[in-house]
Amino acid sequence: MTTQRRKLAAAFVLSALMIAAPMTATAGGLGNLLMGAAGLYGVKLIAGPLNTFINKIMLANHVATTDSTKVVPIVSVGSGTYVGAAQVSGPAAAVGQTQAVGSLEVNWNNGTWQGDALIPINNINPLKGFKRVYGVGVDAVINARV
Question: Quick check: pTM over 0.70?
């Protein structure tokens, strides 16, 4: 199978999962699981072109980085299912170790203040354990409406 056919097949499967996930949400956590898997796969599928696109935007606006960059999925910790991606930058070795960005939402003062801590991590599945990747920063956050 050619690369183009694989990408087309993957896009079809991703679309089907994203359509099916809301319909199965009433069956418990299956809808969230399908949506999360589809989102992670979708980010991996478009990571390269999205990284190039972000780099071109940064260059056009005179804020380009000289470090290595890569687009990775955002893994949200908390309630709800979110599909997102982040561009990370830093030394090539550290960027190579980064598999995701953990997003930790915090609220304080009875919800008056809200913030998101974005942490580059070395594992896409935080339930299996992860470590922060030092020397890597988040340059951009990309969200998709689903």
Answer: yes
